[in-house]
Amino acid sequence: MHPRRPEGFDGLGYRGSGREEPGPGARPFGGAAEASHWVTTPPDIPGSRNLHWGEKTPPYAAGTPLGAAGLNEEPSLGAGGPGAEQLNRFAGFGIGLASLFTENVLAHPCIVLRRQCQVNYHARNYHLTPFTIVNIMYSINKTQGPRALWKGMGSTFIVQGITLGTEGIISEFTPLPRELSHKWNLKQIGGHLLLKGLTHVIAMPFYSASLIETVQSEIIRDNPGILDCVKEGIGRVVGMGVPHSKRLLPLMVLIFPTALHGVLHYVISSIIQKLVLLFLKRESSHSLPTESSTSVQTMLDAYFPELIASFAASLCADVMLYPLETVLHRLHIQGTRTIIDNTDLGYEVLPINTQYEGMRDCINTIKREEGMLGFYKGFGAVVVQYTLHVAVLQLTKIIYSTLLQNVS
């Protein structure tokens, strides 16, 4: 129940904003001039630091260290006339949009297969490699049509919107900080993580409804409305709506694993993103600009480090927390009378009839009946998803470089 892109490592890195003022005793980070070079963005939006009109991402390869006097000047991200300048204006938007499209649209079939494999305790084929995942994707597409691989995509956007809105509302009416200042302390970190946990808990019933939409077999389900996710989530809270079996776990049992997964994913992705950005910044600082350095490379170095860091952060968090995500999805789906596709054959359907009593019982049962690899069912879909993401980013980089060279 987390966005697949970290939130600009809030709390572990500085994010400038014209709307924020340093508190008492806080040290300004490079002054007002530097703040104009940093982009303030809403959290959880992939590539969001490059999506805001007229704002600039700090050029890591510009050769000017952060905090130096050179930051008072506009970064020269390329020459070559009005064509290059106009292309530069849309560069960040285009690159960020490509990343956004890949993560939330193009990779959705991988998410569908990944979740179906995770909750399928019947499966004998664990689909640990991308080759078997591609094969089962082809089989499902052949028997049910392409619609079967894109089911539930609208509900995933709704859950992300609910998560963002809930976090914003809670931070406005409580002292819990949505972002942390550069000089943070343990109390601020605790409040910040508490905000993340509360956000995931409030969005939890809607996440359950979205999960059902993404794993429910297309063969037996009706066409869901765009707001069915919201209706089912509210019905889950008040105890009304679609009838469930007695094996349905109470929401109170789901609070701890849901909040734990969401907070851990945020912490891991934030740390990884910060470390990767520091590494990229250090590498770029060694190569000072020369007369032979091209404007193309300078502009690419300005826009791509954050996308690379966000990609690495999301990948590491997904891989490290994959076993916990498997347990979480099985707990959420239990007792909902969901019918899923047979991921061994690509046709036929299977019922979900698990009887886990809670998180600990689910872990012990998977370990006993399916082995340790049972926690990694469908892992090949993660490989396909991030391979696809790398390919799209690389293609975007090639196209952007070609366009810049043509207008220079």
From TrEMBL:
Ranges occupied by Solcar repeats: 301-403
Keyword presence, DNA damage: no
GO-annotated cellular components: mitochondrial outer membrane
Keyword Mitochondrion annotated: yes
Domain of life: Eukaryota
Pfam family, one: Mito_carr
Membrane association type: Multi-pass membrane protein
InterPro entries: MCP_dom_sf (IPR023395), MCP_transmembrane (IPR018108), SLC25A46 (IPR039158)
GO terms for biological process, alphabetical: axon development; mitochondrial membrane fission
Region (Disordered): 1-37, 52-80
Keywords from the named record: Membrane, Mitochondrion, Mitochondrion outer membrane, Repeat, Transmembrane, Transmembrane helix, Transport
Chain intervals with Low complexity compositional bias: 23-34
Subcellular location: Mitochondrion outer membrane
PANTHER family in UniProt: MITOCHONDRIAL OUTER MEMBRANE PROTEIN SLC25A46, TB1 PROTEIN-RELATED
Similarity remark: Belongs to the mitochondrial carrier (TC 2.A.29) family.
Protein name per UniProt: Solute carrier family 25 member 46
Source species of the chain: Callipepla squamata (Scaled quail)
